[in-house]
Amino acid sequence: MVFKSLRRALGVGGPTVDTVLDGPDVQPGGYVSGQVRFAGGEHEVEVERIVVALQTRVEVEGSDSEYDATVEFQRQQLTGGFRLAPGQQHAVPFQLPVPWETPITHMYGQRLPGMTMGVRTELEVARALDKGDLDAINVHPLPVQAAILDAFVQLGFRFKAADLERGHIHGVHQTLPFYQEIEFYAAHQYAGKINEVEVTFVTDPHGTQVVIEFDKRGGFITEGHDSVSRFQVGHAQAAGVNWPAQVDGWVRQATERRGWHF
After folding, report:
1. This prediction's pTM
2. Contacts of 106 (CB under 8 A, 6+ apart)
3. How far is the C-alpha of 32 from the C-alpha of 95, rounded, in Å?
4. Residue 1, number of CB atoms within 10 A of its CB
5. 78, 101, 167, 193: which sits with the fewest CB atoms below 10 Å from its CB?
6. Average pLDDT score over residue span 145-172
7. CA distance linking residue 132 with residue 156, whole number of Å
8. Residues 197-250: pLDDT tens digits?
9. Separation between Cα atoms, residue 215 and residue 36, nearest integer Å
10. How far apart are alpha carbons 245 and 99 in whole angstroms?
11. Local confidence band at 4 (pLDDT 50, 70, 90 cut-offs)
């Protein structure tokens, strides 16, 4: 009896949980769906709840250091409390909303290096959490986002890196506690004026705010706010716009405002 109690305390022979996604490919504003399958172990347990959540890794800047942290940004409780008998099997379907501001993990058909995004499942028994593995999802850009990113490439910009920064952009309404930066090396026609460009999308059901920041001399300029330009684009504008010409106009408008004439 003492041995069985010890095994239970250590979680040995306890319930198992497995999450099966209907598919890993999603877009901001959509849903990730699937089933949480769980089975009783060697003894009866009182399950307090089962939860699914979206998680990602973000870069956090401290006073004198930088580090990565896991951030949960969407959560859905699937069950309340129930009794799970030994060997008993169940499956609970779910449809978890993907926030409009969710960063993209894929661009030009390839995964962006360093982007980690997935669904984590939690089964709670006696106030102890059993956190399953992170089931990866692939967040593809919305049509308007894809059109803008493709325009940068058509203009000659070269992808450099992408990361997630914890915090909020000045003057921009955000619902998530972080934002994505997609960095490009400047195209040759802008050489000598700008070296790199950072692009951020802050999206809602109506459209996306495109935030562009320019690096003129090897470090992103942060004094004041006129080094950052913002442009509002509706989802319906994805088609019917000459996006290379539009993005070129954005770059020239923003740089000429600071006297960086080409």
Report:
1. 0.87
2. 112, 138, 139, 140, 141
3. 6
4. 5
5. 167
6. 94
7. 43
8. 999 999 999 999 999 998 764 444 344 334 688 999 999 999 989 999 999 999
9. 46
10. 30
11. very low
What does the H/E/C string look like for 112-132?
CCCCCEEEEEEEEECCEEEEC
Buried-state track 77-108, b at ≥16 Cβ within 10 A, e below 16: ebbeeeebeeeeebeeebebebbbbbbbbbbe
pLDDT at 192 over 50: yes
